[in-house]
Amino acid sequence: MKLWMLAAILLCGTTVLLTSCSKDDSSSGDTPSITKAKYGIIIYGNAGGKMDGLIEENFFDKVAPLLTDPSKVRVGVCYKYGRDKDNTVGGHTFKHTFNGKYANAGQVVMFELNAETPLSEGSLGKNYGKDWPEMRMYDEETLTEVINHFKETMPAEKYIMLIYGHGGGWDQLNDYVREAPEPGARGFTRGVLYDEWSETVIGSDALSMYEFRRAVEKSQIPHFDGVFMHSCLMGNMESLADLYPISDYTISCMHSLNSGCESMRSLVKELLKGTDFPTSTKAAFKDCYDEANKVHASCNGDMNLLDNKEFEKLFPICKKLSSRLQALYPDKKAEINKAIENDIYVVDPDIIFVDLQYYADQMAKATGDAELKTIADELKAQMDKTILAANHYYNSPYAKGIKPDFSLSVVAVDHKTYIGEAGLTHSFQTAYEYTNFHKQTGWGDWLNILEAKPTKNNPAGDKSSD
Fold first, then answer.
1. Domain 3-222, what fold?
2. String of b and e for 175-203 (b: at least 16 CB within 10 Å)?
3. What predicted TM-score, i.e. pTM, was given to this entire model?
């Protein structure tokens, strides 16, 4: 059954099915505006903790007054508020704080944000909300229905998908089965977007990269102008290699994302000037960087704007990199192992993501191999074409980082980890070799013989997890 058919009483009024509306629409029953915008932005999220308050104060409050002309930019929101009480599962207690003001914990709000949107204590929950903590934000059918709803009620020439919440990048536990799982048979994921109302003994369930792509492709907007992942760790080759076909451009973060919605807000402000998505994103990045430096912020996210036509050209270069490393390893094992253990830092210790460009450069340096150096230089040239703009606050004069530039991350485990058990039904290797990135590059074949893994921490010292 379709998600929105499950509710007889839903968000705007009392008897209609999910019509995107303003306060006036809600009271009068008028049909939604048919004004076609240049850009429609669909925000889909669940975060909890301080992030409920951040999106209210730094996005809803500051962006709504700007949205007075529906022919320019329209913003649709489907947001699930987080938990307000600690939750114990299997003997483990998850700590929760709640700082949302405009809706209650567990409420799902769905509305079009504009200058007429009522923003006051409890207003979103009252006008556009439903108490629905069990609504599964990680379900691909949910996302498909949300996209379809805003396609029908918020017409636009081009659309941007914005994911707001906690991300985890590629994960070996459940980023594996591409086909939709049987009901009740889901494994555990980190993936694209956690839903903290679905906590298990090992964490929250999440929308996997395969489910995200499938949800978009079967929706009424099968291809977006841009996908903006305002979440941690989504700038990894493994996730991006499966997600890049659904949009022309992607904004993603390679590290933990420590951000207060500044980039989201700045993007809307720039789009309102009439510029296209990449031009607006570049300007938004600069605005955010300058804003952070004014208050001496040491870190406010690490984002890249990617041209997906150029992104796929990284695959053959990565394949050459993998093949050359495999060829060199028997004779250069000591040099390579030493470099990996001493010179490569870890972006995320749970999965062991590392910076791909830095990794290639260090391997070329350690081996002294001319062919590997040529491959690393070719990779750098293509990275420069792929990454159209960067928002690297770690390069701020107030940052403590030791590495000024970032590319995209990649998994870099050793052989022992690679062949180890990932879940109850499959190994790490099985899950990894299911990814499009491995199929295109053979990167897993390199990991399968590697006897060393990085041990250094993220150089910026940012251990947050947004």
1. Rossmann fold (3.40.50)
2. bbbeeeeeeeebbbbbbbbbbbbbbeeeb
3. 0.85
